[in-house]
Automatic annotation (TrEMBL):
Organism, scientific name: Psychrilyobacter piezotolerans
SUPFAM superfamilies according to UniProt: Acyl-CoA N-acyltransferases (Nat), Nucleotidylyl transferase
Source organism phylogeny: Bacteria, Fusobacteriati, Fusobacteriota, Fusobacteriia, Fusobacteriales
Gene Ontology terms for molecular function: [citrate (pro-3S)-lyase] ligase activity
Catalyzed chemical reaction(s): holo-[citrate lyase ACP] + acetate + ATP = acetyl-[citrate lyase ACP] + AMP + diphosphate
Name the record gives this protein: [Citrate [pro-3S]-lyase] ligase
Gene expressing this chain: citC
Keyword ATP-binding: yes
Signal sequence bounds: none
Length: 351
Protein backbone atom coordinates (compact mmCIF):
# COMPACT_ATOMS: atom_id res chain seq x y z
CA UNK A 1 0.00 0.00 0.00
CA UNK A 2 1.26 3.49 -0.84
CA UNK A 3 0.97 5.69 2.23
CA UNK A 4 0.86 9.49 1.88
CA UNK A 5 2.38 11.79 4.50
CA UNK A 6 0.14 14.81 5.19
CA UNK A 7 1.08 18.05 6.92
CA UNK A 8 -1.31 18.87 9.76
CA UNK A 9 -2.89 22.35 9.93
CA UNK A 10 -2.03 23.40 13.47
CA UNK A 11 -4.63 26.17 13.43
CA UNK A 12 -7.38 23.61 12.79
CA UNK A 13 -8.54 22.56 16.26
CA UNK A 14 -10.43 19.56 14.88
CA UNK A 15 -7.30 18.14 13.19
CA UNK A 16 -5.17 18.77 16.30
CA UNK A 17 -7.75 17.05 18.51
CA UNK A 18 -7.74 14.08 16.12
CA UNK A 19 -3.96 13.69 16.62
CA UNK A 20 -4.32 14.26 20.36
CA UNK A 21 -6.86 11.41 20.56
CA UNK A 22 -4.63 9.12 18.50
CA UNK A 23 -1.62 9.83 20.76
CA UNK A 24 -3.68 9.24 23.91
CA UNK A 25 -3.97 5.58 22.95
CA UNK A 26 -0.17 5.41 23.24
CA UNK A 27 -0.11 7.34 26.57
CA UNK A 28 1.41 10.32 24.77
CA UNK A 29 0.46 14.01 24.99
CA UNK A 30 0.23 16.50 22.13
CA UNK A 31 2.45 19.13 23.74
CA UNK A 32 1.86 22.88 23.61
CA UNK A 33 5.19 23.81 22.02
CA UNK A 34 4.76 21.64 18.88
CA UNK A 35 5.29 23.69 15.70
CA UNK A 36 4.96 21.03 12.97
CA UNK A 37 3.07 17.75 12.67
CA UNK A 38 2.67 15.13 9.96
CA UNK A 39 0.18 12.28 9.84
CA UNK A 40 -0.47 9.22 7.70
CA UNK A 41 -4.08 8.11 7.19
CA UNK A 42 -5.83 4.98 6.05
CA UNK A 43 -9.50 5.37 5.03
CA UNK A 44 -9.31 8.94 6.42
CA UNK A 45 -8.30 7.63 9.85
CA UNK A 46 -4.92 8.53 11.39
CA UNK A 47 -2.65 5.48 11.60
CA UNK A 48 0.69 7.22 12.30
CA UNK A 49 2.03 10.62 13.31
CA UNK A 50 5.16 12.50 14.31
CA UNK A 51 5.70 16.13 15.39
CA UNK A 52 8.51 18.50 16.22
CA UNK A 53 9.06 21.51 18.44
CA UNK A 54 11.94 23.53 16.96
CA UNK A 55 14.76 20.91 16.85
CA UNK A 56 13.07 18.26 19.02
CA UNK A 57 10.99 15.43 17.52
CA UNK A 58 8.11 14.27 19.68
CA UNK A 59 4.66 12.69 19.56
CA UNK A 60 5.83 9.74 17.43
CA UNK A 61 3.31 6.89 17.20
CA UNK A 62 2.42 4.20 14.67
CA UNK A 63 -0.60 1.90 14.82
CA UNK A 64 0.68 -1.36 16.30
CA UNK A 65 -0.70 -3.43 13.41
CA UNK A 66 1.44 -1.53 10.87
CA UNK A 67 4.98 -1.92 12.18
CA UNK A 68 7.36 -3.25 9.54
CA UNK A 69 5.61 -1.52 6.61
CA UNK A 70 8.09 1.35 6.26
CA UNK A 71 5.80 3.91 7.87
CA UNK A 72 8.42 5.02 10.40
CA UNK A 73 10.79 5.76 7.55
CA UNK A 74 8.17 7.99 5.87
CA UNK A 75 7.49 9.91 9.09
CA UNK A 76 11.13 10.50 10.00
CA UNK A 77 12.06 11.53 6.45
CA UNK A 78 9.19 14.03 6.38
CA UNK A 79 10.23 15.60 9.69
CA UNK A 80 13.93 15.65 8.76
CA UNK A 81 13.11 17.32 5.41
CA UNK A 82 11.29 20.03 7.36
CA UNK A 83 14.23 20.44 9.76
CA UNK A 84 16.65 20.82 6.84
CA UNK A 85 14.34 23.41 5.24
CA UNK A 86 14.58 25.37 8.49
CA UNK A 87 18.39 25.05 8.51
CA UNK A 88 18.40 22.66 11.49
CA UNK A 89 21.01 19.89 11.10
CA UNK A 90 21.24 18.68 14.71
CA UNK A 91 18.07 17.34 16.26
CA UNK A 92 16.77 15.39 19.24
CA UNK A 93 13.97 12.96 19.88
CA UNK A 94 12.14 11.90 23.00
CA UNK A 95 10.67 8.48 22.66
CA UNK A 96 9.78 5.43 24.65
CA UNK A 97 12.69 3.05 25.30
CA UNK A 98 10.84 0.48 23.18
CA UNK A 99 11.52 2.64 20.06
CA UNK A 100 15.23 3.13 20.83
CA UNK A 101 16.39 0.44 18.39
CA UNK A 102 14.17 1.83 15.64
CA UNK A 103 15.66 5.32 15.85
CA UNK A 104 19.21 4.05 16.19
CA UNK A 105 18.68 2.36 12.81
CA UNK A 106 18.06 5.86 11.37
CA UNK A 107 21.39 7.15 12.70
CA UNK A 108 20.19 8.54 16.05
CA UNK A 109 22.50 8.13 19.05
CA UNK A 110 21.29 7.57 22.62
CA UNK A 111 22.19 10.36 25.06
CA UNK A 112 20.41 9.01 28.13
CA UNK A 113 17.58 6.72 29.07
CA UNK A 114 15.42 6.44 32.18
CA UNK A 115 12.68 3.93 32.74
CA UNK A 116 9.99 5.97 30.95
CA UNK A 117 11.80 7.86 28.20
CA UNK A 118 14.90 7.84 26.01
CA UNK A 119 16.59 10.94 24.58
CA UNK A 120 18.50 10.51 21.31
CA UNK A 121 20.26 12.96 19.00
CA UNK A 122 21.00 13.09 15.28
CA UNK A 123 23.59 15.03 13.31
CA UNK A 124 27.29 15.81 13.14
CA UNK A 125 27.40 17.45 16.58
CA UNK A 126 26.84 15.49 19.77
CA UNK A 127 27.11 15.94 23.51
CA UNK A 128 30.77 14.86 23.64
CA UNK A 129 31.82 17.48 21.06
CA UNK A 130 29.69 20.15 22.75
CA UNK A 131 31.29 19.60 26.17
CA UNK A 132 34.78 19.48 24.66
CA UNK A 133 34.11 22.85 23.02
CA UNK A 134 32.75 24.23 26.31
CA UNK A 135 35.87 23.04 28.15
CA UNK A 136 38.16 24.81 25.70
CA UNK A 137 36.14 28.03 25.40
CA UNK A 138 35.94 28.55 29.17
CA UNK A 139 39.36 27.08 30.02
CA UNK A 140 37.87 24.59 32.50
CA UNK A 141 40.54 22.81 34.56
CA UNK A 142 39.22 19.29 35.02
CA UNK A 143 41.77 18.30 37.70
CA UNK A 144 40.13 20.43 40.44
CA UNK A 145 36.89 19.24 42.11
CA UNK A 146 34.10 21.71 41.46
CA UNK A 147 30.71 22.82 42.70
CA UNK A 148 28.10 23.53 40.02
CA UNK A 149 24.89 25.55 39.96
CA UNK A 150 22.35 25.77 37.14
CA UNK A 151 20.35 28.99 37.04
CA UNK A 152 17.88 30.72 34.74
CA UNK A 153 18.09 34.15 36.47
CA UNK A 154 14.97 35.65 34.92
CA UNK A 155 16.18 38.18 36.13
CA UNK A 156 19.36 37.93 38.26
CA UNK A 157 18.40 38.70 41.89
CA UNK A 158 20.16 39.13 45.21
CA UNK A 159 18.89 35.61 45.99
CA UNK A 160 20.92 34.22 43.08
CA UNK A 161 23.92 36.28 44.16
CA UNK A 162 23.60 34.91 47.73
CA UNK A 163 23.53 31.32 46.46
CA UNK A 164 26.63 31.85 44.32
CA UNK A 165 28.42 33.52 47.24
CA UNK A 166 27.70 30.47 49.40
CA UNK A 167 29.12 28.17 46.71
CA UNK A 168 32.16 30.42 46.29
CA UNK A 169 32.87 30.40 50.04
CA UNK A 170 32.56 26.61 50.36
CA UNK A 171 34.30 25.47 47.16
CA UNK A 172 37.66 25.70 45.44
CA UNK A 173 36.06 26.32 42.04
CA UNK A 174 32.48 27.01 40.99
CA UNK A 175 30.79 26.62 37.60
CA UNK A 176 27.55 28.52 37.00
CA UNK A 177 25.55 27.23 34.02
CA UNK A 178 22.99 29.74 32.76
CA UNK A 179 19.95 28.20 31.05
CA UNK A 180 20.45 29.09 27.38
CA UNK A 181 17.00 28.26 26.02
CA UNK A 182 15.53 31.61 25.01
CA UNK A 183 12.00 31.13 26.31
CA UNK A 184 12.13 33.51 29.27
CA UNK A 185 11.00 37.15 29.39
CA UNK A 186 14.60 38.26 29.90
CA UNK A 187 16.65 37.21 26.82
CA UNK A 188 19.43 34.67 27.42
CA UNK A 189 22.28 36.97 26.39
CA UNK A 190 21.11 39.64 28.84
CA UNK A 191 20.60 37.11 31.69
CA UNK A 192 24.10 35.73 31.01
CA UNK A 193 25.78 39.14 31.15
CA UNK A 194 23.85 40.22 34.26
CA UNK A 195 25.17 37.17 36.13
CA UNK A 196 28.69 37.38 34.70
CA UNK A 197 29.02 41.07 35.59
CA UNK A 198 27.20 40.56 38.91
CA UNK A 199 29.69 37.99 40.22
CA UNK A 200 32.87 39.32 38.58
CA UNK A 201 34.36 39.96 42.06
CA UNK A 202 34.16 36.21 42.93
CA UNK A 203 37.42 34.99 41.40
CA UNK A 204 36.74 31.25 41.74
CA UNK A 205 33.44 31.48 39.82
CA UNK A 206 33.07 30.85 36.06
CA UNK A 207 29.78 31.69 34.31
CA UNK A 208 29.00 29.49 31.28
CA UNK A 209 26.09 29.30 28.79
CA UNK A 210 24.25 26.05 29.57
CA UNK A 211 23.88 24.96 25.94
CA UNK A 212 21.50 22.30 24.60
CA UNK A 213 22.01 19.72 27.31
CA UNK A 214 20.99 21.52 30.53
CA UNK A 215 17.30 22.38 31.12
CA UNK A 216 16.59 22.84 27.42
CA UNK A 217 13.64 21.97 25.22
CA UNK A 218 15.57 18.79 24.46
CA UNK A 219 16.19 17.64 28.03
CA UNK A 220 13.37 19.24 30.02
CA UNK A 221 10.51 20.83 28.00
CA UNK A 222 8.12 20.85 30.97
CA UNK A 223 10.37 23.42 32.69
CA UNK A 224 9.38 26.02 30.10
CA UNK A 225 5.79 24.88 29.80
CA UNK A 226 5.48 24.82 33.61
CA UNK A 227 3.34 21.72 33.26
CA UNK A 228 2.70 19.19 35.97
CA UNK A 229 2.03 16.32 33.60
CA UNK A 230 2.52 12.65 34.22
CA UNK A 231 5.76 12.85 32.23
CA UNK A 232 7.25 15.56 34.46
CA UNK A 233 8.99 12.98 36.61
CA UNK A 234 10.53 11.36 33.51
CA UNK A 235 11.79 14.72 32.22
CA UNK A 236 13.37 15.68 35.55
CA UNK A 237 15.08 12.30 35.86
CA UNK A 238 16.34 12.53 32.30
CA UNK A 239 17.82 16.02 32.75
CA UNK A 240 19.43 14.99 36.06
CA UNK A 241 20.85 11.86 34.42
CA UNK A 242 22.39 13.83 31.53
CA UNK A 243 24.00 16.22 34.03
CA UNK A 244 25.37 13.36 36.14
CA UNK A 245 26.65 11.13 33.37
CA UNK A 246 28.23 13.82 31.19
CA UNK A 247 28.78 17.19 32.93
CA UNK A 248 29.92 15.82 36.30
CA UNK A 249 32.28 13.31 34.71
CA UNK A 250 33.66 15.68 32.06
CA UNK A 251 34.27 18.67 34.38
CA UNK A 252 35.02 16.89 37.69
CA UNK A 253 31.88 18.27 39.36
CA UNK A 254 31.62 16.67 42.80
CA UNK A 255 28.88 18.84 44.27
CA UNK A 256 25.73 20.56 43.01
CA UNK A 257 24.10 23.33 45.03
CA UNK A 258 20.38 24.04 44.72
CA UNK A 259 18.19 26.86 45.93
CA UNK A 260 15.33 25.86 48.22
CA UNK A 261 12.05 25.67 46.24
CA UNK A 262 8.93 25.59 48.42
CA UNK A 263 6.63 27.33 45.87
CA UNK A 264 7.01 26.06 42.27
CA UNK A 265 6.01 22.35 41.94
CA UNK A 266 7.96 21.87 38.70
CA UNK A 267 11.23 23.16 40.18
CA UNK A 268 10.59 21.30 43.45
CA UNK A 269 10.09 18.04 41.50
CA UNK A 270 13.29 18.76 39.58
CA UNK A 271 15.23 19.32 42.81
CA UNK A 272 13.96 16.01 44.22
CA UNK A 273 15.09 14.17 41.07
CA UNK A 274 18.49 15.86 41.22
CA UNK A 275 19.00 14.74 44.81
CA UNK A 276 18.10 11.13 43.96
CA UNK A 277 20.00 10.86 40.67
CA UNK A 278 23.12 12.84 41.61
CA UNK A 279 23.62 11.11 44.93
CA UNK A 280 23.31 7.74 43.16
CA UNK A 281 26.19 8.92 40.93
CA UNK A 282 28.30 9.91 43.96
CA UNK A 283 27.74 13.66 43.57
CA UNK A 284 26.96 15.61 46.74
CA UNK A 285 23.86 17.85 46.74
CA UNK A 286 23.37 20.80 49.09
CA UNK A 287 20.11 22.76 49.24
CA UNK A 288 20.47 26.37 50.38
CA UNK A 289 17.47 28.10 52.04
CA UNK A 290 16.17 31.15 50.19
CA UNK A 291 17.53 34.56 51.09
CA UNK A 292 14.86 36.57 52.89
CA UNK A 293 14.38 40.23 53.75
CA UNK A 294 13.67 40.78 57.45
CA UNK A 295 10.79 38.22 57.76
CA UNK A 296 10.52 34.52 56.78
CA UNK A 297 7.61 35.34 54.44
CA UNK A 298 9.50 38.07 52.61
CA UNK A 299 11.65 35.87 50.41
CA UNK A 300 13.53 36.95 47.31
CA UNK A 301 12.58 35.35 43.99
CA UNK A 302 12.76 36.25 40.32
CA UNK A 303 9.02 35.58 39.91
CA UNK A 304 8.29 38.06 42.70
CA UNK A 305 10.39 40.68 40.87
CA UNK A 306 8.51 40.03 37.61
CA UNK A 307 5.14 40.20 39.39
CA UNK A 308 6.03 43.57 40.94
CA UNK A 309 7.08 44.90 37.53
CA UNK A 310 3.88 43.57 35.93
CA UNK A 311 1.78 45.27 38.61
CA UNK A 312 3.61 48.59 38.85
CA UNK A 313 5.60 48.92 35.60
CA UNK A 314 8.67 51.15 35.79
CA UNK A 315 7.45 52.50 39.15
CA UNK A 316 8.55 49.17 40.67
CA UNK A 317 12.19 50.06 40.02
CA UNK A 318 11.99 52.60 42.85
CA UNK A 319 11.70 49.86 45.49
CA UNK A 320 13.36 46.78 43.96
CA UNK A 321 16.84 47.43 45.36
CA UNK A 322 16.17 44.96 48.22
CA UNK A 323 15.54 42.22 45.60
CA UNK A 324 17.95 42.84 42.72
CA UNK A 325 21.59 43.95 42.49
CA UNK A 326 22.74 47.14 40.79
CA UNK A 327 23.61 45.29 37.57
CA UNK A 328 19.98 44.17 37.14
CA UNK A 329 18.57 47.54 38.19
CA UNK A 330 20.80 49.31 35.66
CA UNK A 331 19.73 46.85 32.96
CA UNK A 332 16.05 47.49 33.67
CA UNK A 333 16.71 51.24 33.31
CA UNK A 334 18.39 50.71 29.89
CA UNK A 335 16.61 50.76 26.51
CA UNK A 336 16.75 46.92 26.39
CA UNK A 337 15.32 46.80 29.91
CA UNK A 338 12.44 49.09 28.96
CA UNK A 339 11.43 46.63 26.23
CA UNK A 340 11.56 43.72 28.70
CA UNK A 341 9.36 45.68 31.13
CA UNK A 342 6.80 46.13 28.32
CA UNK A 343 6.91 42.36 27.62
CA UNK A 344 6.39 41.56 31.31
CA UNK A 345 3.41 43.92 31.58
CA UNK A 346 1.75 42.44 28.47
CA UNK A 347 2.59 38.78 29.15
CA UNK A 348 0.77 36.09 31.07
CA UNK A 349 3.60 33.57 30.86
CA UNK A 350 4.77 32.09 34.17
CA UNK A 351 8.30 32.33 32.85
Amino acid sequence: MNYIVEKLHLTNAEEVNEVRSFLAAFQLDYEKDIDYTVVIRDSNKIIATCSKAKDVLKGFAVDNSLHGEGITNLLIKAIQDRLFQEGIFHSFIFTKPAYETTFKSFGYKVIASVEEVTLLEYGFNDIHKSLATMKNLYNIDTTTPKTALVMNCNPFTLGHRYLIEQASLKSEEVLIFIVEEDKSLFPFIDRYHMVKDGVADLKNVTVIPGGKYIISSATFPAYFLREETKVLSAYTKLDATVFSEYFCKQFNITKRMLGEEPYCPVTRNYNESLVNVLENHGVEVEIIPRKRISTPENYISASKVRNLIKKEGREALEHLSDFIPAVTLNYLRSEEGKEVIKKIINSNTPH
